[in-house]
Amino acid sequence: xATRIQEAPFDAGAELNAFQAAADxxxxxxxxxxxxxxxxxxxxxMELEHYPxxxxxxxxxxxxxxxxxxxxxxxxxxxxxxxxxxxxEIMMVATxxxxxxxxxxxxxFLMDWLKSRAPFWKKEVTEAGETWVAATExxxxxxxxxx
Length: 147
Known about the structure:
Elements: E1 2-6, H1 12-22, E2 28-35, E3 43-50, H2 54-69, E4 74-80, E5 82-84, E6 89-97, H3 100-116, E7 120-126, E8 129-133, H4 137-144
Parallel strand pairs: 1-4
Antiparallel strand pairs: 2-6, 3-5, 3-7, 4-6, 7-8
Helix pairs in contact: 2-3, 3-4
C-alpha cells in the first residue's frame, strides 16, 4: 500500500476505508491511530522534525519487513511532522492479513518501531518551556520483543 510522511492532517476513517477496500485476500484488517496527548498537563503543542528522504526510507523499510515477517497482504504507515496540538492525529498504521494474529502482531510491530526507532525528533512545548522527548524504557522493552 503506502508509507507516507506528511505535514498535513489525515482522515483516519477515510484512510481505513480505502485501505480495507484495496486489501485483497485479507481476512483481517487492524488499524491504530495515535493522537498527541498532554501527558504532564499544559502542553501547548508538539513539534516533530525529520530528515526528508531518510525518514521515508526508514519507515518504508520497516513496512516492508512487516509485510514479509507477518505474511501481510497489505500495510499502511502514515506519520505526521510539524506542529501538532493535543488531540491531533499524529500517526496511523493499518495491516491486512489472511488471519487476525498476523494483522495484530504486525500493527504492534510497526507501532513499537515508530515509537522507538523512527527518525523523528519530538519537542514538547508547554507553558513552562520546551523539552525534547526521548524513547522511554517501556518503549525500548516493547521494541525488544521483536528482536
